[in-house]
Request: fold
Amino acid sequence: MAAPTSVTWSLPEHTLVKHQILEHYLQAWLPIMASRSGAARGPGHLVLVDGFAGPGRFGGNEGSPLVIIRTYLEHAAAALANTRLTFVLIEPNAARFSCLQSEISAIEPRLPANATVLLIPANFADVMSDRARFMGADAAQAPSFVFIDPFGYKNTKLNEISNLLSFGHSEAFIYVPLWHIARFLDKADLADTFSKVYGDDRWKAARSETGWPARHDRLRELFRESLAEHVTYVRWFEMRGRNANTGYHLFFGSNSPEGLRKMKAAMWLADPYEGSVFRDPQSGGQTLLLQSPCYETLLHQLYGHFGQTEFSIDDAARFTLTETVFRDDAHLKKPTLGAAERAGCLVARRPGPRTVPGEYPAGTMLRFTGELRLAAPGVQTASEPEPAPSQIALW
Reply:
């Protein structure tokens, strides 16, 4: 989306879905981070940063700063009562900042005494380069969740983001318009800009790819690699536009496996079939009616990783969480391993007497019994009958 010149504008559906992901994640993140930030040292302090806050409201729709604050206000977690919350809302445009001030003024009477809103009329880059001056020394070094959602790619700079991630349990949710970058990859006057997006010149490796889709996919992997140098876990979600080869990505970076788990849960709510893509409903092409994951894909990935060597249920959960798009807490046991065990493709050694497929207590050891043959999962369209269940078998 090009940067608008108006103070406010209509939100497209993919932006509303982005806000849904943000809200669902914060519902889970707030109590977890509150309990960690205050552990063994009294009341904790959390910081939530919206780096490109905008006017706050778009007609009848909340903007991201209102989504963030409302999620906190509606949260019932007891851990938040003893945690200081600082909301840092950054917006350089004077007219939009004035609208944002009005929106926050209407909310502030509802905020508890342990919550503070800092409205900063400045550029995100300036605030990040001198956080202590803008935010205060304590907030500048507290665990934080930073939402970085600018217009275009010129304000996405990995060096600024990496500095934020250096403080404890800090996390970032970042907008990157990869399709747009792919289109202009060969423009010499944008080379310095792209290097700032990636933190170095690695993006140039995508120039060897032919065509926008191949360049797009390579750029996605290269940005994931760049972000992974600063955090342990990285997950992406694609927002596809109405036209082919349009859209952007959201990248999540965290050092917490629990943070990764909760973000994947939020993404699967937005895309219950693949967990990684939102498609504009007004885009052309077939409409998917499938509303459940393709568990056979996860099973194939597990087999590709472990082969016929024995592995623990903890190993399987760790691999599923960190190396696949699937959820270790919802997709792994009953729908995937349980189905394979019932089909005779998997054997399990449980520490206790229970032998029920789909139940794998701690200490369970697993092994595939032969090479898997998975039927290709069907794609159902509006004019097709419901596909038959995929089959799991051995060669």
Summary: The longest helix spans residues 13-37. The radius of gyration is 23 Å. DSSP finds 14 helices and 15 strands in the chain.
